[in-house]
């Protein structure tokens, strides 16, 4: 390349300025907080807090406080928790840099609208809209039903079931991404472990599922937002991306399975040769499956964990149209992307395909909900009534244990009060003498029913007498929305909206590093490494960086953004110096980064990916607690095997498919 035709080298003049140094410090601190979130306690004077609540109550935003009930006794100060969470830490960092004038309009523009082929808004809209369709498939019950069919096919053979579930989750993760697998598959496995009598630990099943869900999501661009960022940064056609990733990923999964079964989880307490599953009773087998999307559905019924997996709910119509829309969307995205790229123009934003598709799926969910509203409302009403009765019974039982129960015709003043002298509960009733305290278990069924009915009526009367507030109206509207449109409401509530501010903030922070010269400095270091180690160093080094940075500098999304900018700056450096990067070296680095950031999602910390946080929370809600040290120790050999195998296969593929000629951007 002639000297006059060479692009200028990256600008690094600002790197010694205080704003540049502050940007790097804030970036490092932010990624540390992302990995280790915390909260700050802020003391507020109790008087000021009470005045604030009183003002909100007077303007009918919140209900009036019940001064007759027990009052909060917290001293002179009210402690508020300000959460510095994984999601909000990058947002706070951007606000701080803006307040100190360290960054400005250019960084915010490039971090939201885009630059150098990366368009953050397109990536996020594509991901959210496609996620709606994927989660809608999950809400239909199809994933749990398919898992049930896999379970039935394997029968009582433990290792065969482990094999079937491994490849089942792999296939689903490839098609619809890791989030629906985490949402539905994790709960299924938790129920399956509880339904078996000889699986001593859930470790093998849940960790294998989480690993394979993230490994398989590396195949399709649409399966993960990290893949979208990478494909956009280097203008890779979606079909080309899949063609280059499918072989390393499938071979990685094929090698990983026997390693998991015979090395990592070789003890039979994890994967027994035969699984003893509790059988369903005749009543449970004949019972109509309950729609888990309807609030309070199945409440009060004697349903066991075995029934959750052996008698799953499936809305066939919902599953049919959701799967059809997903298939048509993915095919359209691949075709439009390939046609646009073959013409040499700027690729059409993929959100123009997924937005109409997700809107169509949403309309179908709303229409289905509206047509079935009478049934869903009746189911929800029945379950809610039982839940309210149970809550009243618990309260009355607690009051009885403290001193007695009150009759059904007591008024508001007859609420149990604890005496400060004797510790007994005095019961005041208008125009009649206090009743003698009576233990709940000593009363007859008729007296209990009368007491419950009376308390229910009193609570309903108190609610009706209270003036409407913004909070009460919002709660009522939300209850109506959930009962009328159960599928649409549950899908919208599960959408990863928290990813949007997080991802945009990370884009802005990386753009700040670019403009302050730090990314160019990192690119010079990467260039030195590649010159000394060659193609194998580029593949292994970028794969290691993808895994390491995903776990120790925030999530894999932020890592992908940073590494893409480093590779772009690396190309600019070599062109400015009149050198060239070989085609093998460049694409080896790009695709090993794709492996690294996807495999890094199941590394040493839960927040390496947002799916990890979701996975941990779902397991905790099912009674399976996974601690940080266990997450690290179990995943360490898994990620080591997967990364080594994936990068090795990728290196062989690069040597076979690519030529040792200069890369042309």
From TrEMBL:
It is found in: Cell membrane. Keywords: Cell membrane, Membrane, Transmembrane, Transmembrane helix, Transport. It is a multi-pass membrane protein. The keyword Membrane applies. GO terms for cellular component: plasma membrane. One of its GO terms (biological process) is transmembrane transport. Its main location: membrane. It holds the Pfam family CitMHS. Residues 397-445 are annotated as: Disordered. Residues 87-570 form the Citrate transporter-like domain. InterPro entries: Cit_transptr-like_dom. The chain crosses the membrane at residues 21-41, 84-103, 123-148, 160-176, 245-265, 319-339, 351-370, 495-514, 534-564, 585-614, 634-656. PANTHER family: TRANSPORTER ARSB-RELATED. This is Arsenite transmembrane transporter protein. It comes from Colletotrichum navitas.
């Amino acid at each position: 390349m002639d000297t006059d035709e060479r692009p200028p080298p990256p600008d690094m003049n600002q790197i010694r300025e205080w704003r540049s140094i502050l940007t790097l410090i804030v970036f490092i601190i932010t990624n540390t907080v992302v990995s280790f979130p915390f909260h700050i306690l802020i003391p507020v004077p109790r008087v000021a807090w009470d005045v604030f609540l009183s003002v909100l109550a007077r303007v009918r935003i919140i209900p009036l406080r019940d001064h007759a009930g027990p009052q909060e006794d917290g001293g002179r100060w009210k402690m508020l928790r300000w959460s510095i969470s994984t999601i909000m830490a990058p947002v706070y960092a951007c606000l701080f840099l803006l307040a100190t004038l360290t960054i400005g309009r250019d960084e915010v523009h490039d971090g939201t609208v885009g630059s150098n082929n990366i368009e953050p808004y397109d990536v996020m809209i594509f991901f959210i809209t496609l996620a709606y369709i994927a989660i809608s498939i999950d809400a239909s019950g199809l994933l749990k039903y398919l898992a049930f069919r896999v379970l039935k096919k394997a029968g009582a053979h433990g290792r065969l079931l482990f094999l079937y579930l491994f490849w089942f989750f792999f296939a689903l993760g490839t098609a619809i991404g890791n989030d629906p697998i985490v949402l539905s598959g994790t709960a299924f496995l938790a129920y399956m472990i509880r339904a078996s009598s000889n699986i001593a630990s859930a470790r093998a099943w849940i960790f294998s599922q989480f690993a394979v869900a993230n490994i398989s999501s590396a195949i399709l661009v649409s399966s993960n937002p990290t893949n979208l960022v990478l494909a956009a940064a280097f203008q890779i056609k979606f079909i080309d991306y899949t063609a280059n990733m499918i072989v390393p990923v499938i071979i990685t999964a094929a090698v990983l399975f026997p390693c998991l079964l015979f090395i990592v989880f070789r003890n039979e307490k994890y994967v027994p040769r035969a699984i003893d599953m509790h059988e369903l009773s005749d009543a449970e087998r004949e019972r109509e499956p309950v729609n888990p999307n309807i609030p309070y559905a199945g409440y009060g019924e004697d349903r066991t964990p075995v029934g959750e997996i052996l008698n799953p709910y499936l809305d066939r119509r919902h599953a049919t149209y959701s799967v059809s829309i997903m298939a048509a969307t993915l095919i359209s995205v691949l075709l439009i992307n390939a046609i646009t790229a073959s013409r040499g123009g700027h690729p059409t934003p993929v959100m123009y395909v997924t937005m109409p598709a997700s809107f169509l799926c949403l309309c179908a969910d709303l229409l289905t909900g509206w047509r079935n509203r009478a049934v869903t409302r009746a189911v929800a009403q029945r379950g809610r009534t039982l839940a309210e009765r149970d809550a009243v019974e618990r309260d009355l039982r607690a009051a009885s244990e403290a001193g007695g129960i009150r009759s059904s015709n007591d008024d508001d003043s007859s609420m149990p009060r604890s005496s400060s002298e004797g510790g007994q509960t005095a019961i005041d009733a208008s125009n009649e003498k206090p009743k003698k305290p009576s233990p709940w278990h000593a009363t007859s069924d008729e007296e209990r029913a009368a007491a419950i009915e009376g308390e229910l009526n009193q609570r309903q009367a108190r609610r009706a007498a209270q003036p409407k507030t913004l909070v009460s109206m919002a709660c009522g509207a939300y209850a109506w929305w959930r009962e009328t449109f159960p599928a649409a409401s549950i899908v919208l509530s599960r959408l990863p909206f928290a990813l949007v501010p997080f991802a945009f903030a990370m884009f802005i922070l990386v753009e700040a590093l670019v403009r302050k010269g730090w990314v160019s400095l990192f690119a010079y270091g990467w260039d030195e490494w590649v010159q000394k180690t060659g193609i194998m160093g580029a593949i292994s080094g970028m794969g290691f960086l993808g895994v390491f940075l995903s776990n120790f500098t925030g999530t894999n999304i932020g890592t992908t953004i940073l590494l893409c900018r480093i590779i772009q700056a690396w190309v600019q450096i070599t062109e400015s110096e009149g050198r060239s990067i070989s085609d093998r070296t460049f694409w080896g680095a790009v695709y090993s980064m794709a492996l690294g950031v996807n495999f890094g999602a199941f590394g040493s910390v839960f927040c390496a990916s947002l799916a990890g946080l979701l996975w941990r929370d779902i397991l905790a809600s099912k009674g399976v607690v996974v601690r940080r040290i266990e997450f690290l120790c179990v995943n360490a050999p898994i990620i080591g095997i997967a990364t080594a195998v994936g990068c090795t296969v990728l290196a062989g593929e690069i040597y076979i498919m690519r030529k040792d000629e200069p890369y042309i951007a």
